[in-house]
Design brief:
Elements: H1 4-30, H2 41-58, H3 68-80, H4 100-124, H5 126-131, H6 135-142, H7 151-172, H8 180-195, H9 205-217, H10 228-231, H11 233-251
Length: 256
């Protein structure tokens, strides 16, 4: 059985790597002195998808959640299936039991990992932040921003996107190909293409909340507030979507 420090390390490193790459991708296409400035939306979607791909591989020992919504979905699945584990492996064969302590370790590691990853991404692109003057653009390098601000409908978008992601995670486990990280990278890519311009496609409370905290704390010229009035949307929406993403396929007996 994995120790608490091993569980924390796996989720922390995986999430930190994911967020560092994603932050660098966002900075590269958003900040005006970058050679990739104003790259198209496919650049952002593919960058996010591949960031998740790398992060999931880094955090493979714990199932590569990197996302409190995925951890919540595993907990909900455990309520219906007491034999289910956090990493999907059978007990006795590397499975991590669903306990309050283990869940707390996973979620703490994800939030802290996302914060550290954002800080690393910022340091790697620091000079470009110094020279760019649009505070709204600087904020969107870190966290999500809706195309049209309508909190209710933005929550709906986050619910739908996260429900699709979680449904795929639980149903794909029974496929003979076991595509794993590559498959989830493609799912993230298409969801960012679909909803990134609508609600920001956070799909992950840690990905957005920790990024706002990092933005608020990092030294940066021409900085605005972190838009905390919107911060609850990419927190609540993914949590609701995670529950739906387990319950819906579970009704049809499709959860592996």
């Amino acid at each position: 059985m994995m120790s608490g420090i091993e569980m924390f390390g796996s989720e922390f490193l995986g999430t930190a790597v994911m967020m560092a790459i994603a932050c660098m991708v966002s900075a590269s296409r958003s900040l005006s002195k970058s050679a990739a400035f104003r790259s198209d939306w496919i650049n952002a979607a593919l960058g996010w998808g591949l960031a998740v791909y790398v992060g999931v591989y880094v955090g493979w020992r714990t199932g590569g959640h990197l996302n409190p919504s995925i951890t919540l979905a595993r907990v909900v699945n455990h309520w219906f299936n007491p034999g289910a584990t956090l990493n999907g492996m059978p007990m006795g064969k590397g499975g991590i039991p669903v306990t309050a302590t283990n869940v707390g370790i996973f979620i703490l590691a994800q939030f802290l990992g996302a914060f550290v990853g954002c800080c690393i991404g910022y340091l790697a692109t620091r000079k470009h932040f110094d020279l760019h003057t649009d505070p709204d653009v600087k904020l969107t390098v870190f966290c999500t921003k809706p195309g049209i601000r309508s909190n209710f409908w933005n929550v709906v978008s986050e619910i739908v996107g996260t429900a699709v992601l979680v449904t795929w995670v639980f149903v794909n486990g029974g496929t003979p190909t076991q595509v794993g990280p590559l498959g989830v990278a493609l799912v993230i890519t298409v969801l960012v293409l679909a909803l990134g311009g609508i609600s920001g496609a956070a799909l992950n409370p840690a990905r957005d909340f920790s990024a706002r905290v990092a933005y608020a704390l990092l030294p940066m010229a021409d900085k605005r507030d972190a838009d905390w009035g919107y911060a609850w949307v990419p927190f609540v929406g993914p949590c609701i979507g995670a529950v739906i993403g387990v319950v819906l396929p579970g009704i049809f007996g499709l959860v592996s």
